Amino acid sequence: MIKYIQAVVYDSWSWLWLLIHTNDLAYAVAVTATILLVFSLFSRIFFKSKKISPQLPPGPRSFPLVGNLLSLDPDLHTYFASLGRTYGPIVTLWLGHKVGIVINSPVIAREVLKDHDTTFANRDVPAAGIEATYGGKDIVWTPYGPKWRMLRRVCVSEMLSKTTLDSVYDLRRKEIRQTIGYFYSRKGLPVDVGEQMFLTIMNVITNMMWGGTVKGEDRAGLGTEFRLVVNEMTQLLGTPNVSDFYPGLARFDLQGVRRKMKVLAKKFDDIFETMIKKRQEMDGQEGSKDFLQFLLKLKDTQDAKEPLSMTHLKSLLMDMVVGGTDTTSNSVEFALAEMMNKPQIIQKLQEELDSVVGKDNVVEESHLPKLTYLYAVMKEVLRLHPVLPLMVPHCPSETCVVGGYTIPKGSRVFVNVWSIHRDPSIWENPLEFIPERFLDGPWDYSGKDFKYFPFGSGRRICAGIAMAEKMFLFSLASLLHSFDWKLPEGQELDSSEKFGIVLKKTVPLVLIPTPRLSNPELYQ
Question: What one-character-per-residue DSSP string does 353-421 give?
Answer without folding.
Answer: HHHHT-TTS---GGGGGG-HHHHHHHHHHHHHS-SSTT-SPEE-SS-EEETTEEE-TT-EEEE-HHHHH
